[in-house]
C-alpha cells in the first residue's frame, strides 16, 4: 500500500483521527433528572415488593464510578420457594384460565409501557451496567419492547404455530439471566413464556438487577395478575435455587457454558424442559472480495459492541491473507475514533466493564495473549481514573493454538488471524467447541451463502454483524447452548405438544 | 498528471449500501454540544461556497451575494469569511471585482453546467473563459451519460482535459451522484476523478435530487482517504445540494473527522456548496451566545 | 433359519448365518472378539452376535463422522430416493424379517404386520426429506433491511439407543435421523438383535453410503456410556422407558452438551411425524443485507 509514497520520498500518509488535537466533542451527558432510583429494592413476589425473608441484601454499584446505587434484597431458598409457589398458584388459578386473547393484551401492555418509559430504562441500564447510553437507548430498550410486542401477538395463535399439533404451556418457568443485556434478556425470557401461558420466576444478575426491578414495576403498572411474573434478586445461590426448584417445569438460562453444564447435569432425567444460551467464540471471516470499509465497521460492531460483553461477539477475526494488511490498517484507524468513557455520555462508544471481577478476567487474558506470543494493539484514547475500563484491543498474529483464540474473553479484545482459502477459513471458524454465531464478509453472494451454510453455528451474519430481532431465532450449536430464543422457534421451547386441536 | 488510459484500468472496491447506511446512522448519533458546537459552526461558515446558480442571476444578484459573503452578519464582526462565491461563468467578472482583496475565492461552474451535454471543445472554451475572467476555482460536471454507458476512458480524458484548461485554477469535479444510481458507481466515479486530476470531488449540481446525501458523501470521503493512503495526495471534498441546516453541516463535519481526520477540517480541503446554510449557522451561533432562538428575518438574505 | 438341531441323514444341513455388526459400510466382527447369544423366547440359543466394546463404539463414531458431511450434502431428493430404496429392499426381504421376528417370539401375523409397518414407515420418511424444510423453515420479517431466514440443519452424528421393538421401533428411530441428514451410531441392546443385524444388510444394498448408519450389537451398560460421553457425537436419541438408563446417558451427554431426545414408549405403531425429524435438527438463522 505504501510503495508509491516510498518512491516519492514522502512520509507515509497518516490520518489524524481521534485524539485530543484539533476539533473534539464536548461532553454530552444524558440528563438523568427524571430517573427515580430508590435506595433499597425488594423482591417482586406475588405482585408485591418484599424484603428477603432473612432480611439480607447486597449492593449494586455503578461500574463507571464504583459508587453504590442501591441495596437490593438477596433472595434465599425460602424466598425462591415463595416465588415459585406464587407462580404455580397464578398459573393454576389465573393465567391458564384466561382467554388467550386477554393474556396477549397484558403482554402488549408491557410492551407499551416499556416504550413510554424507554429513556428512564436506558439511563438505568447504563448506570447499573456500564453500557453506553447510545446502545441502551437505541438497542437494548427498543428491542426489549419489540420482543414483548412480538410475543404478545402469539398468545391467541398458538394453534397455528405447529402444523399437525396443538400446544399447551409448560407451567412454571425458572429463568436466570446474565448482566450483559439485563432488560433485553429479561424480555427474551419473560415475553415468550407468559405469552405462551406459563408463569415465571426470573433471577437477574447480581451486578445489574435494577432494570429487571423496574420491569417489575411496569408489570404491576400493566395490571398483570399477581404471581404471573416474579423477580428474585441475588447471586449464584439464588439462581441455583431457581433452576433446581422441584416445582419448576421449565428452566431457561443464559450465561456461561460452565454453569450451563452444571444446570444441564442437574436436570438430567428430570424430564423438565430447558433452554440454554451459553458462551461463544465466533469467527468473523473477511474475504478478499469484501466491501472493506463496511467489513471494518462490522468487525468493530462485532467485537466492541457492549464492551465485547456479548456471547455472540465476533471475537475471532479471520482475514484472508491477500487483504489482511489493508483490513488491519483500516481497523486500527477506525478504532482510533472509538471513545471510551462515561456510559451516560451520548458520544461514548465503549462504556465501563461491568464489574471488577470481569475486568480482572479481561486483564488476565491480556497478559495471557502477550505471553503466548500474540501482538497486542490498543488505541490511545484516554480513560477515566475511577471505574472499570478497557481500551479496545487487538491481538495480532494470534494462532489457533492460543488461549486468546480458543477461550471466551467477554471483553473488547479481538484475536486476529489470517487464512488463505475459503476452505481453510471455514475450517478455522469451526475449530472450536462453541457454535453460537459467525460472520462472513464477501461481495460475492454465492460465496456468502456457501460459507454461512458451512459454519456450524446458530446465527450467521453475512455482510453484517450483531443484528437482533424478535422474529429471528437465536441460539447455539455445540457447546454454545441448546434451544432457541426469538421467533417461532423460541416459542416452541415454552410449549409442549398435545393432540391436534 | 497520470495518463488517461492508466486511470481507466483500475478496480474500485465494492460498496455495501446497507453497511454504509448503518455507519452513517451511527455517525449521526454523535451529539455535538457547547464549545464543540460553536467551533463547528464557525468552521462551517469558513467552508461555505456561497452559491447562486439560477437562470435569472444578474449582476445585481451576484453583487448582493458577494456583499453577504464579505459581511455575514453585521452584529458579529469576528466571524470567519466564507471560502468562496460560486457563480456561472458569465458573472465571474462581477464577483471577482466585488471580492477583490477579501481572501474569498471566486468559483465558477463550467463545462455546460449542469447537464454537461455539449461538445468537449465548447466545454474547454468555457473553462478557459471562466479562468480568464478571474475564477480561482472551476466546478465541472462529468458526462454522466458516457460514464453510465461504461466509457470510463472518456470520463477520465474529459477530466484531464478540463484540468489542463484550468491552468492555475483549482478543479472541482461534480459527479452528480443523484444520477449515478448506486454507491458502487459513486465510488468508481470518485476514484476516476481523483486519478484524472481533480483537486476536489463534489457530489452534485444542486439541480438533481437526491444530492449530497450522507451515504454518498461517506463513500466519497472513503475514496479520498484511500487515495491519500495510496498516493499521499490530499483531495478535497465538496458536498453540494440539500445541506441547509447547521445540524446537517455538523453531521458532515463529524463524518469528515472520523473518516479523514483533522487535516480535512479545513476550507482548503472541505467545502459546503450551499445557498441557505449560512443563515441557519448564523442563527445557531447567535443562539449559542444569547440562549434565545432566532428568526430568519434577523439575518440578511 | 437358525435351526441348530442335527439334521436327519436325508436332510440338507442348513448353512448358518454369522451375524456381524455394520460399521462404515462393512460387516466386521467386534474388535473385542467377544460374543453373546441371541435367544429364542424359550431360552434356546439361535445365533451368536457380536458383543461390541467401547472401541467398537469409537470406530463407529469415526465412520459416522466421516460420512456425515457427504450425507448432509446429498440433495434432499437423493436422500428421499435412498430411503425409498431401503423400503424397496425391505419389502423384498419381508419373508426373511417375518421369520426373524417369529424366531424372536412374535406371532406370525403380527410379524407380517410389523414388517409392513416398518416398510411403510421408511416410505413415510422418504417423502419427508424434501418437505420438512419447507414446512419448518421460516423467513423472518426483521425490522431492518435484511433478508433473514431460519432453516434446519442436521445435528451431525446422532447416537441412537435403539428401542426394544426389534424392527418397527428400530426403523422408526433410524429413518427420521438419516432423513434429516444425520449419520447414526445405533446401539442394539434388546432381546431381539437379529432384525437389526439383518437390517444392516438391507441398508448396505440400498445405496446408503457407508457410515450413514452404523449398527452395533452388545450390552447397553458397556456401550451406552462411551457413546453418550463421546465428544464427537452431536445428539442422542434414547429409546428406553427406563428413567435410570436415560438419566445416566443424559449426564454423560453433558460433556459436550449433546442434544438429547428421549422416547419412552414401547409401542411404536403411531410414532410417526415430522417432529421426529425436527427433534434431531438445529435451527440456523442467517442474515443478508438487502441493498444495491
What can you tell me about this protein's structure?
- The complex is a heterotrimer of chains A (501), B (301) and C (292).
- By secondary structure, chain A is an alpha/beta fold.
- Chain A has two domains: 40-278 and 479-498, Aldehyde Dehydrogenase, Chain A, domain 1 (3-Layer(aba) Sandwich), CATH 3.40.605; 283-470, Aldehyde Dehydrogenase, Chain A, domain 2 (3-Layer(aba) Sandwich), CATH 3.40.309.
- Chain A has 16 helices and 20 strands.
- Chain A has a seven-stranded mixed β-sheet, sandwiched between helices. A six-stranded mixed β-sheet of chain A has the order 9-8-7-10-11-19, sandwiched between helices.
- Chain A starts with a helix and ends with a strand.
- Mean pLDDT of chain A is 96; it is low at 1-6.
- By secondary structure, chain B is of the alpha/beta class.
- Chain B contains twelve helices and eight strands.
- Chain B has helices at 4-8, 17-28, 34-46, 59-70, 92-99, 120-132, 144-148, 152-166, 183-195, 214-231, 246-259, 277-290, and strands at residues 48-51, 84-87, 105-109, 137-141, 170-174, 200-202, 236-238, 272-274.
- In chain B, strands 7-6-5-4-3-2-1-8 form an eight-stranded parallel β-sheet.
- Chain C is α/β, with parallel strands linked by helices.
- The chains are: A alpha/beta (501), B alpha/beta (301), C alpha/beta (292).
- The interface between A and C is large, with 46 and 37 residues.
- β18 (459-462) of chain A pairs parallel with β10 of chain C, so a sheet runs across the interface.
What characteristic shape of chain C results from the CA principal axes?
Answer: globular
What structural class is derived from the secondary structure elements of chain C? alpha/beta
Number of helices of chain A: 16
User: What is the CATH architecture assignment of chain C?
Assistant: 3-Layer(aba) Sandwich
The profile of the biggest β sheet of chain C is:
5 strands, parallel
Work out the oligomeric state of the chains in this entry: heterotrimer
How many helical stretches of chain C?
Answer: 10
**Fraction in helix of chain C:** 40-55%
- CATH homologous superfamily of chain C? Aldehyde Dehydrogenase, Chain A, domain 1
Tell me the CATH topology of chain C.
Answer: Aldehyde Dehydrogenase, Chain A, domain 1
- CATH class group of the largest domain in chain A: Alpha Beta
Overall number of structural domains of chain A: 2
Q: What's the number of domains of chain C?
A: 1
Low-confidence stretches of chain C: none
Which structural class fits the helix and strand makeup of chain A? alpha/beta
Main-sheet strand order of chain C equals 7-6-5-8-9
Amino acid at each position: 500500500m505504501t510503495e508509491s509514497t516510498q518512491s516519492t520520498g514522502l512520509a507515509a500518509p497518516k490520518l489524524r483521527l481521534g485524539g485530543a488535537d484539533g476539533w473534539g466533542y464536548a461532553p454530552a451527558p444524558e440528563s438523568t433528572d427524571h430517573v427515580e432510583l430508590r435506595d433499597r429494592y425488594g423482591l417482586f413476589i406475588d405482585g408485591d415488593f418484599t424484603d428477603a425473608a432473612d432480611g439480607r441484601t447486597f449492593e449494586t454499584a455503578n461500574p463507571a464510578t464504583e459508587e453504590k446505587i442501591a441495596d437490593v434484597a438477596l433472595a434465599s431458598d425460602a424466598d425462591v420457594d415463595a416465588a415459585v409457589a406464587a407462580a404455580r398458584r397464578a398459573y393454576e388459578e389465573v393465567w391458564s384460565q384466561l382467554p388467550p386473547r386477554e393474556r396477549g393484551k397484558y403482554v402488549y401492555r408491557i410492551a407499551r409501557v416499556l416504550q413510554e418509559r424507554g429513556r428512564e430504562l436506558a439511563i438505568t441500564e447504563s448506570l447499573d451496567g456500564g453500557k453506553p447510553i447510545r446502545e441502551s437507548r437505541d438497542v437494548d430498550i427498543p428491542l426489549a419492547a419489540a420482543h414483548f410486542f412480538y410475543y404478545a401477538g402469539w398468545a391467541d395463535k398458538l394453534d397455528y404455530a405447529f402444523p399437525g399439533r396443538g400446544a399447551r404451556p409448560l407451567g412454571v418457568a425458572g429463568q436466570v439471566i446474565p448482566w450483559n443485556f439485563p432488560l433485553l434478556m429479561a424480555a427474551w425470557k419473560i415475553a415468550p413464556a407468559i405469552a405462551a401461558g406459563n408463569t415465571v420466576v426470573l433471577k437477574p444478575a447480581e451486578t445489574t438487577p435494577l432494570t429487571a426491578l423496574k420491569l417489575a414495576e411496569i408489570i404491576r403498572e400493566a395490571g398483570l395478575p399477581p404471581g404471573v411474573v416474579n423477580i428474585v434478586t441475588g447471586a449464584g445461590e439464588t439462581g441455583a435455587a431457581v433452576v433446581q426448584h422441584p416445582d419448576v417445569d421449565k428452566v431457561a438460562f443464559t450465561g456461561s457454558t460452565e454453569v450451563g453444564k452444571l444446570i444441564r447435569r442437574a436436570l438430567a432425567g428430570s424430564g423438565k424442559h430447558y433452554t440454554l444460551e451459553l458462551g461463544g467464540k465466533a469467527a468473523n471471516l473477511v474475504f478478499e472480495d469484501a466491501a472493506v470499509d463496511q467489513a471494518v465497521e462490522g468487525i468493530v460492531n462485532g467485537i466492541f459492541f457492549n464492551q465485547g460483553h456479548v456471547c455472540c461477539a465476533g471475537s475471532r477475526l479471520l482475514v484472508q491473507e491477500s487483504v489482511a494488511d489493508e483490513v488491519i490498517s483500516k481497523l486500527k484507524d477506525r478504532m482510533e475514533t472509538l471513545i471510551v468513557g462515561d456510559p451516560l455520555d451520548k458520544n461514548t462508544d465503549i462504556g465501563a466493564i461491568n464489574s471488577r471481577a470481569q475486568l480482572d478476567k479481561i486483564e488476565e487474558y491480556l497478559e495471557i495473549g502477550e505471553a503466548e506470543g500474540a501482538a497486542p494493539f490498543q488505541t490511545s484514547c484516554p480513560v477515566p481514573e475511577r471505574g472499570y475500563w478497557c481500551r479496545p484491543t487487538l491481538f495480532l498474529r494470534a494462532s489457533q493454538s492460543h488461549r486468546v483464540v480458543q477461550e471466551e474473553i467477554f471483553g473488547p479484545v479481538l484475536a486476529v488471524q489470517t487464512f488463505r482459502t475459503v476452505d481453510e477459513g471455514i475450517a478455522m471458524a469451526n475449530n472450536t467447541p462453541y457454535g453460537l454465531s459467525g460472520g462472513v464478509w464477501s461481495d460475492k453472494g454465492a460465496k456468502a451463502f456457501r460459507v454461512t451454510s458451512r459454519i456450524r453455528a446458530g446465527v450467521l451474519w453475512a455482510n453484517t454483524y450483531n443484528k437482533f430481532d424478535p422474529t429471528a431465532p437465536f441460539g447455539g450449536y455445540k457447546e454454545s447452548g441448546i434451544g432457541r430464543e426469538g421467533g417461532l422457534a423460541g416459542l416452541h421451547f415454552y410449549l409442549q405438544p398435545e393432540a391436534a386441536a | 498528471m497520470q495518463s488517461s488510459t492508466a486511470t481507466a484500468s483500475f478496480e474500485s472496491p465494492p460498496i455495501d449500501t446497507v453497511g454504509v447506511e448503518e455507519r452513517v446512522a451511527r455517525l449521526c448519533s454523535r451529539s455535538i454540544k457547547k464549545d464543540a458546537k460553536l467551533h463547528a459552526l464557525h468552521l462551517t461558515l469558513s467552508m461555505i461556497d456561497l452559491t447562486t446558480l439560477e437562470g435569472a442571476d444578474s449582476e445585481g444578484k451576484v453583487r448582493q451575494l458577494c456583499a453577504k459573503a464579505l459581511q455575514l452578519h453585521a452584529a458579529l464582526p469576528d466571524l470567519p469569511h466564507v471560502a468562496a462565491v460560486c457563480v456561472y461563468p458569465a458573472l465571474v467578472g462581477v464577483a471577482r471585482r466585488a471580492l477583490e482583496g477579501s481572501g474569498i475565492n471566486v468559483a465558477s461552474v463550467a463545462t455546460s453546467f449542469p447537464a454537461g451535454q455539449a461538445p468537449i471543445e465548447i466545454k474547454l472554451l468555457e473553462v478557459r473563459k471562466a479562468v480568464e475572467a478571474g475564477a480561482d476555482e472551476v466546478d465541472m460536471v462529468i458526462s454522466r451519460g458516457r460514464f453510465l454507458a461504461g466509457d470510463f476512458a472518456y470520463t477520465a480524458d474529459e477530466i484531464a482535459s478540463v484540468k489542463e484548461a484550468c491552468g492555475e485554477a483549482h478543479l472541482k469535479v461534480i459527479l452528480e451522484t443523484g444520477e449515478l444510481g448506486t454507491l458502487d458507481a459513486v465510488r468508481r466515479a470518485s476514484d476516476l476523478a481523483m486519478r484524472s486530476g481533480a483537486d476536489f470531488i463534489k457530489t452534485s449540481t444542486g439541480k438533481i435530487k437526491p444530492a449530497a446525501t450522507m451515504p454518498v458523501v461517506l463513500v466519497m470521503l472513503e475514496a479520498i482517504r484511500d487515495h491519500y493512503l495510496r498516493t499521499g495526495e490530499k483531495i478535497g471534498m465538496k458536498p453540494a445540494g440539500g445541506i441547509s441546516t447547521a445540524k446537517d453541516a455538523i453531521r458532515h463535519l463529524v463524518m469528515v473527522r472520523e473518516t479523514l481526520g483533522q487535516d480535512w477540517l479545513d476550507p482548503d480541503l472541505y467545502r459546503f456548496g450551499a445557498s441557505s446554510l449560512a443563515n441557519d449557522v448564523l442563527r445557531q451561533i447567535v443562539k449559542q451566545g444569547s440562549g434565545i432562538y432566532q428568526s430568519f428575518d434577523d439575518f440578511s438574505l | 433359519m437358525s435351526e441348530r438341531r442335527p439334521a436327519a441323514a436325508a436332510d440338507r444341513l442348513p448353512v448358518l448365518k454369522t451375524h456381524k455388526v455394520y460399521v462404515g459400510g462393512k460387516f466386521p466382527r467386534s474388535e473385542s472378539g467377544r460374543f453373546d447369544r441371541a435367544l429364542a423366547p424359550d431360552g434356546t440359543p439361535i445365533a451368536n452376535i457380536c458383543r461390541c466394546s467401547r472401541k467398537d463404539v469409537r470406530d463407529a463414531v469415526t465412520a459416522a463422522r466421516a460420512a456425515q458431511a457427504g450425507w448432509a450434502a446429498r440433495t434432499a431428493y437423493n436422500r428421499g430416493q435412498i430411503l425409498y430404496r431401503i423400503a424397496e429392499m425391505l419389502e423384498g426381504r419381508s419373508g426373511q424379517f417375518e421369520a426373524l421376528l417369529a424366531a424372536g417370539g412374535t406371532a406370525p401375523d403380527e410379524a407380517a404386520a410389523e414388517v409392513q409397518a416398518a416398510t411403510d414407515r421408511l416410505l413415510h420418511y422418504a417423502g419427508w426429506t424434501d418437505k420438512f424444510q419447507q414446512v419448518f423453515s421460516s423467513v423472518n420479517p426483521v425490522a431492518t433491511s435484511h433478508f433473514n431466514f431460519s432453516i434446519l440443519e442436521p445435528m451431525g452424528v446422532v447416537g441412537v439407543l435403539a428401542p426394544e421393538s426389534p424392527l418397527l421401533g428400530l426403523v422408526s428411530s433410524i429413518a427420521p435421523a438419516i432423513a434429516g441428514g444425520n449419520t447414526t451410531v445405533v446401539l442394539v441392546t434388546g432381546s431381539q438383535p437379529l432384525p437389526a443385524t439383518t437390517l444392516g444388510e438391507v441398508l448396505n444394498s440400498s445405496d446408503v453410503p457407508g457410515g450413514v448408519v452404523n449398527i452395533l450389537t452388545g450390552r447397553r451398560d458397556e456401550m451406552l456410556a462411551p457413546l453418550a460421553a463421546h465428544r464427537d457425537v452431536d445428539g442422542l436419541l434414547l429409546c428406553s422407558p427406563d428413567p435410570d438408563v436415560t438419566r445416566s446417558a443424559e449426564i454423560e451427554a453433558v460433556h459436550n452438551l449433546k442434544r438429547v431426545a428421549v422416547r419412552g414408549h414401547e409401542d411404536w405403531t403411531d410414532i410417526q411425524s415430522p417432529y421426529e425429524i425436527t427433534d434431531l435438527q438445529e435451527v440456523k438463522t442467517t442474515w443478508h443485507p438487502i441493498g444495491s
